[in-house]
Amino acid sequence: MDKALREQGLTVPQYACLEVLAARPGMSNADLARATFVTRQSMNVVMRGLQDAGLIDRPGTVDVGRARPTTLTPEGRRRLQGAQESVYAIEARMVRAVPERRLAALLADFDRIAEALDG
Question: CB 3.0 to 4.6 Å from 55: which of 3, 76, 92, 99, for a disulfide?
């Protein structure tokens, strides 16, 4: 995935940030950091790179508070779509590598792991 994203001019944290923003536009730096499992300081670096590349837009100031809502630019949506095509193709290859008779059990195991992490 890292190699495929590098070919799209993105890092894994940048891709994760774009994915989250596509689903939930307007998130703040702190919200994005939590959603992508990085520190706020690391997310600042990620967002600066995305903003410099013209992939996200954040207002310079806000009327209330300090959180600046972030949205994808048209170029950000285009770049995300190209990256998704690559990432989803990798995901499909991974799934095809699991014998069909074992796939349901593997997915159930992943669900149990995720539930264990939530609790």
Answer: 76
